[in-house]
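Something for you to look into today, if you have time. Could you write out one complete protein record for me, on any chain you like? Leave the record below and I will have a look.
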Amino acid sequence: MSEPVVLLVSHGTMATLEELPEFLASIRRGHAAPPELLAEVRRRYEAIGGESPLRRINESLAQKLAARTGLVVHAAARHGSPPLREVLERIARAGARKVIVLPLAQYSAPIYAEAARECAADLPLELSYVPSWAHDSALLSLYANKLEQALAVFGKPVRVLLSAHSLPQAVIDAGDPYEREVRAAAEAIARLANVQNTRIVFQSQGMSKGPGGRPMPWLGPDLDAALREAAADGETGVLVAPIGFLADHVEILYDLDVEAKARATELGLELARTESLNDDNAFVTILEHLVRTAA
């Protein structure tokens, strides 16, 4: 098979809630989640219907990208289902030798590339990688378009919170460029959408404890602090633009649509958010360009 195979790699999710202990253990590098963490995460998934749509969205992306490029496209997960290692084994068994790895995490592409490299170490595959694409001009424009559309629906002046997933502060302190890349992208999106009343926030902090059971410092400011600030400043509405995420998942459907919305209501704020990119055809066009450039 001379044509390369494309592999979309996402953070991942579970196929069913029964996989939750294994899923969390994978995220926690093999350490079992304590009962209280299992219960809280289960509660959040149950609040959004018992499952995340992420796997279905990624499968749809793979199908659409295959139709656009004429290449075989697989979707795999670093954690959860379908497992990255199993998908790579399937690709090798099918006779493919060249694989283009496209991380569905624009700010953390090197980490996802390394995960694929480790999983394929003993397989007869030649992997190439789409590098960090956080500042792809078409991607920034698409986020800006989503922001403009949401502002038009809101119909009144609001504060815009440009959000991304938080990371442990220790990761940033060790030199990870994540925060710099997020802030640069957020500023570019705000310029493209011509909005000034903005804040950059980091949401969905982890629930794990640090050494000795002490709270673990996470990259901030967090979403709750930004909502309290907006209320204190006399704002009546807040629009969250989760520019650190590509698709709907528990961080969007629960952390924003349930938890943040309830907190905003407590503070007297109306809260809405921009639509996720999901399997939007404009987003597929961006992925197609990345693949053709890497091929």
